[in-house]
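Lab meeting, action items carried over

1. Structure of the two-component assembly. Owner: GW. Status: complete.
Input record:
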Amino acid sequence: MHKLRMNLARLYMGLFLIFMLAPLVVMSGAAFNDNRLPSIVPWKGWTWRWFDAMINDDRMMVAFGNTLVVAVAVAILSVIVGTASAILINSISGRVRTLLYSIMISTILIPGVVIGISTMILWTKMGNALGTEFFLFNPGLHLSVLGQVSYIAAMVMLLVLARLQSFDAGLEEAALDLGASHSQVLRRILLPYLYPAIGAGGAVAFFQSIENYNVTQFTRGGMDTLTVYVFSMVRSGVTPAINALAFLLIMVTLVLALIYEINRRRLARIEAEREAEARRAAALEEAL
Amino acid sequence: MNDLIRRYGVTITALMCLLVAFWLVMLVVVPNITLFEQSFRPYLPVVEVGGPKDFYSFGNYAKVFDGSIERTFFGYAYTIPVHVMTFGLTIWYSIVVTVACFLLAYPLAFFMAKIANPKSLPTLLLLLFIPLWVSEVLRAFAWWIILAFKGPLNALLLAIGAIEAPVRWIVDYDGVVIGLTYTYVLFMLFPIYNAISSLDTNQIEAADDLGASWWRIHMRIVLPHAKPGIASGCVMVFMLSAGSLLVPSILGSTTSQWFTQTIDQWFKDALDWNTASAYAFILLLLCTVFVSIALKVFKVKLSDIAK
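Predicted assembly:
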């Protein structure tokens, strides 16, 4: 009976993985099907032409470039703002902390539609009130960046805050006592300790920004990002050129995942070897 | 605060405070206040803004009740305003998605936390993470291909003889529910998995030794322990589903309409930003109410959700 249940659990696990991964396989497969509509059935033969179509799609390439620019901008701003917030939150307490922390967390829960519309209205209204044509106050991708930062910064803040909690403030004390300047304390002690969290935060921000549709959709003006472009293609005239793009993106993800996995296994092996060696040494010592 | 100044000096502290203030004031609080204020103003041509017709009213909110349609529910006919119905259906199907995600994710979370071989777990987690890194629009698009009338799912089911004629999958809200469940199930899985991992396995074994049946073990030990994880999973999935615009637009049928789509139409098609603001504010209000209820019911704090 117990064995049956174990096998059922394994079977379920397998089915779930198929459920999660099969759509990606189907989507990739359609990139190679010589059929004008993106699908894997009916299979009309192997072709590379959708990759040609993708590269020759200028609008898609422009959208791709825009996406990267926005994502980098969001990552940089979110990391700066998120790290500053984490340091600030970590050093205050009481009601003010609870209030600030709640506002920060709630940004993650605000629907993207609301963020998009409110950002758009605020900045364009401000432009009208000031009677200026300055680009900042017109719709465009810079407003998408601001809108996205408003909630992605909270994610970075959470990651950095988690790391800050295990930081030994005594190190800073020691540095100050030894005559380090304020900026040295920040640059040489606190920030290096936070780098892993800052790096992870930057990566999360970058990918969240690429994903984003809701905020971008309302603030972008006439500009395209990849998500917006793919969406408009799916709605109007879709060709497997999108599948070619999806295939490439999935491949990049897979390669990154593979590198991560190999690196993790290598580290695990080194760790295991070290432990075995320590055990051998202990046994040897005992024998002597 | 004094501590900060002592460590990093006045300049750096001030700079940090400015950054945080910019984020919270200019990107969060003021935009939302503007949205709220704007939602009470009528939509006017530019020249009339600030003129005599520009006064506060509930006019934009009242538009929710415009234009009724007839529906029947178990043979009982009634009329209901279109947007109220959209709103209600959005909530209802978001709840359906949340429940579906829970039912799918809970057994798996338990399996991963307590039964699976710990050595293969990182690989498993990595495999599950891959769809999360592929963007949402592409995942919705993948289901659009799969669920198509002449698509692979129907072809597969016909081939193995499970169905005799192709099934139309994208009818009513079916496609939307399938797509949202696929897209957001991982936001349910990981919090529950984290919560169950921290449960001492000895408790389960003790209950088992004392003769408790497996469902009793789950009801009395595992589920109560996983409550904070379940709460944060439910809140995340519901919020993401109700606020999703991509999936309902791509996988929606001719008879399905999501509340975010209505907002989008006011904004992009009617160019009436004021009514769009009012509708967006209603959505925000719904989400706030839902989160508060969920926090009360599960007895957890907002700060626990974020983990």
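2. GW to write a short summary for the group page. Key points so far: Chain B touches chain A through 90 residues (CB under 8 Å). Chain B has one domain: 69-305.
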